[in-house]
Structure formats: structure tokens, C-alpha cells
Amino acid sequence: MPKDVDAVNQYWGAFFSESYRKNKRVAWWEAGPEIYNYKNRMVSGDPAVNWVQYTLSKYFNAKLPLAQCLSLGCGAGGLERELSSSGAFQHCDAFDVSEGAIRLARERADQLGIKNITYHIADINELTLPPHSYDAVWVSQAMHHFQALEHINQQISRALKPGGLFILQDYVGPKRFQFSSRQKEVVNLCLSLLPVEYRLRMKHAVDQEMRRSRKLGSKFVQRLIDKLVNFPTARDVIAGDPSEAVRSDEIVEVLQQDFEIIEKRDWGGNILQFLLADIAGNFVDEKNEHAKAYLRMLINIEETLLQSGEFESDFAYIVARPLDAQ
Q: CB atoms < 10 A from the CB of 115, how many?
């Protein structure tokens, strides 16, 4: 296994192992119902309808269950389990490079009695897919980890049956999270609007930093978030995960070499992703109207700046069909 692939395998195995030991609702920037509803509204137009439900209803409703689906970069298998519970397919193949993630995906599927998903360990960058085999190919939050975009798109196009669709929802923003100075400035201005109690870093974030600090011989870790959001350098990103946002800014352009985009919905993340990364758990209490008001404020700022053209969305939902299917 190449060195970078081995590093990615180990990183994501550890990530998913840790994420299943804690409450994910406070461990990710998309924590809490307000962000969930915002994302749903941006994609489906309805806060109560997520992107999976929207896709199945709009594009596949009369065809369900689909005979064969494919999920690439499946991680711990959340997407496939949701699709299976919705009666979306008779069978699904799912691939990921991380042995740890695949192990968790198989365990969770077994626990739920799901028998129609087959999980495979593979480097997606080198994957060869059987031609005309799948009714739909799904990629969720994984395309920005793929280096060989041209090869992968060609394989997906080749693997789709006539009339098949490619559904993608992913980070498509700047490579290695190297945002503009203006975007960083706005994120930090938004941080400054929050009272101190909403800038307290969640325990999992502090614990993570303590582990890193011990490796570096440091003993001091602050619980209060820095006055500035610390955006990573490209070197920082690569050191953590060599696959992270490797060609994210090219995803849409490269996709159009092999596909016609028939729907694209931008759903933001420009402010919220890094601002909420370590503090999202402070906003998940549905009874805390004060916290909800501040979170709505942040959402409104992000949405206004997107609508005004100040920023292009860092995340997108895309439905596409192969060019040769036209």
C-alpha cells in the first residue's frame, strides 16, 4: 500500500473509531437541528426533507427499489444504511480505503439486520468498475478526498446503466482549505459576535488537543477558543490527512468533462464550517432559545453573503448524467 494511502487508511480508521465513541451531534460543525434544517432548506427547499429523501423522491420515486447502487468513499456506511431503510435499492456495493471504517460499516449494518449492502476495501483512485452495472452512484463528503478525479469520473460514467445518475454532495471549496483573506476575516468577525459561553470548546476538541500537546511536550490547553479561528496551512492539512481537500476546487470543472449537471444546489458552509468546528455542541440544546437565536444569526449572515455574491458556496449538491447518455 502506498505511503499516502496507508496514512489515509490509518487517519480515517481512527476518526470513525473515535466518532462512534462520542456524541456526533456535538463533534461536527453540522451539529444541531438549526444547521440540519438550514442545509435541508438550501438543497430541497424544505427544512424537513434532507438531500437523500429529496433525491429519491424527485429522481427515482417511480423506479424504487433500484436494482443496483454504488457508494464511493462510504466511510462508516451512514448513507447506505439510510438508503436501505428507505427501500432505495435491492443491492448496494460500497467502497472505502479505510479498513477501520469498513469494519464499522459492516458492524452497524449487521446490528440493524441489513443484508443487501456489500462493503469493499479499496483505493478509489485506482478502482475499476464493471460497465453498465449501476442505476445510481452516490458520493457523500468523499469526492474532495479523491486525487484521480478524471479516472474516477470516467469509471462512474462507464459503470452507470442507461438512464443512471450520479449524485454528489460534497465540499467543493478551496483546495486544502486555503480560503481568501476576506473569508477568514468574516469568520472571525462572526466569532467576535458570540458571547463567551458560546465560544467554549467542546470536551472532545480539548481532549484531542491535549493528546497532540502531549506529543509535543506541552501541558497547557485552553478551553476558551482563540480570539481568532486558526485556519490551517496547506502543510497542516496534508500532515493530518494527505487526501484532505486534495483537488476540491476542481471537482465541478472536472465533473463536466464526463457529465452533464442537471441540478446543482449550493448549501454554504463558508462561515459555519470552521467557525463551529470545535464549538458546535454549544448550540444543540433545542430548549436554549438564546443559543438558537445566535446560531440563526450566523446562518443568516452566511446566507446573505452567498446570495449577494460575496462568496461562492463551499459545499454543493449535484445530480449529473453521463454526457454520452444525452
A: 10
